[in-house]
Amino acid sequence: MRRLCATMTTTDAITELQRRLADGLATIDPHHRLLGRPVTYRVIDGQMLEITYRDVAGIADAEVNGVKRIIGRDCSCSVSPQTAEQISVRFVVPLR
After folding, report:
1. What pLDDT sits at residue 6?
2. What domains are there in the chain, each with its CATH number?
């Protein structure tokens, strides 16, 4: 598995991560809780990448751990209510 590293540009690192997530979500997300949901990517201070999935009905620990395996780096995850029926799932990944 290719890791995000300092020799890659930020754009290259984000593109690689997006590709890995697109390929891997189909495998680890059989209920399509994240796959196909609106997702945003935001670079924070040039050092962190925030990935936010919106309009998620629910998520299991196994799915969170699967995303962390796909990302392949230490990352944090938070789940926040969005509406009474929907949540936002946010991963923060170091780029360097």
Report:
1. 46
2. 10-94 (3.30.565.10)
pLDDT at 95: 83
- Residues 12 and 19: their CA atoms lie apart, in Å, by 11
Instruction: Give dist(CA 14, CA 49) in Å, integer.
Output: 8
pLDDT digits (tens, 9 = 90+) for 28-53: 888 888 998 999 999 999 889 999 99
What is the model's pTM?
0.84
Query: For residues 50 and 52, what is the distance between their CA atoms, to the nearest angstrom?
Result: 6
